Amino acid sequence: MADILTGAALFILAVTALGLFRVLRAEFAVERMMAVQLLGTGGAAALLLLGAASGTGAMTDVALLLMLFAAFSCAAFALGQASPSVEGAERREDGA
Amino acid sequence: MTLLLDLALVAWLLALALHIARVRDDRNAIVAFIGFGLLLGLGWTRLASLDVALTEAAIGGGVTGVLLLRAEAHLRPGKASGASVSHGGKTLAAIACAMVAAGLALAVLAFPSPAPTLAPAAATALPSTGLGNPVTAVLLAYRALDTLLEKVVLILALIGVWSLAPDHLWGGAPSLRPDVVPEPLAYLAQTLPPFGVLIAVYMFWVGADAPGGTFQGGTVLAAMWLLVMLARLRPAPETRRRSVRLVLIGGPTLFLAIGFLGFAMAGGFLAYPESIAKPLIVGIEAALTLSIAATLGLLVAGPAQTAPGR
Predict the structure, then answer these.
(1) Is residue B85 part of a domain?
(2) What confidence tens digit (pLDDT) does each residue in B193-250 have?
(3) Would you list the DSSP string of A5-39?
(4) Where are the domains of chain A?
(5) Interfacial A residues in 45-64 facing B (CB < 8 Å)
(6) Number of H helices, E strands in chain A
(7) Interface test with A, best of B34, B52, B179 (most A CBs within 10 A)
(8) Which domain holds residue B15?
(9) Which of A76, B4, B26, B278 has most Cβ atoms within 10 angstroms of its Cβ?
(10) Predicted ipTM?
């Protein structure tokens, strides 16, 4: 059973990794920030599976913090947004 | 299967690190770095260091990211597009980093094979502290002096940041406000903090018997506070306010006071009488959690940017 759970965790990590590198190369800055969300979700899923595989309940706490801080980091991204006009200029720049 | 998982994780970490080093735009690098912090937290769990994993997810994946994003947003207007590091400089940095990494790898490989360890001694003495988590016992009982000094260093760092404020702004409020608050951010800042505070209290409480503790709990609280300030729901407090300063020094002061009380009660600085060791430790942890939350939050908020009222 533990092997199956570990295998599932490996699969999730691999899929998340592929998705991550795709999102990190995205055209818009905001889309790239979604990479952190993706990692939060995928990482938490893998942690929960690994925790079940090894019987460590505390892994659930790590998964909890991972989710919380992934969401928080996305909010922090607003710091970089100066104003709508600047954001628009940046988008054109990004697209070029 | 676990070996395959560990190898995949190492490969992923290396690839992400390379991506961070190679990417042109600063903000992209910071976003990838936040991801790297979260992934590194996952890596620490594979080494069975859950306390480190929690701290890495909180600090590396959370607060450091905000600090860097804030610094980048602050620097961006003055940055000319051509003012990047030259090719030679990058090569030099790469060589230096590779040398440090190789040196560290050599040092790790040169460890004596049955590593000298105090773990059995720490485990035997655990019942006398009343705690169940050996990491918390090391932090707050066996090596309490290190922890005390570490908290004082945090306060010193905050004083360093505050002293960057010009004279006429001293004592005023820092400002964390982005120019635009997107609707989802305001919604998130209203929804997430109740859960965050609950998780922070849980982290602090569970730390006595399982991975977790003051630093993790304090960081979660700080993050929730920052979220509220980011969404402009509450302004940052003026740094001259007495209540702010009391919260900042409350934890270390209580720690120090109980440390001196150890002379009278248990015959040494920072020694706890065995019968009430656990209540004392949990009390110190509670005060420290609040102090750490306030310190980290204000560290990210930065120096005062508005003049103090009246």
Answers:
(1) no
(2) 999 999 999 999 999 888 988 999 999 999 999 999 988 888 888 888 999 999 999 9
(3) HHHHHHHHHHHHHHHHHHHHT-SSHHHHHHHHHHH
(4) 2-95
(5) 46-47, 50, 56-59, 61-62, 64
(6) 4, 0
(7) B34
(8) 1-73
(9) A76
(10) 0.86
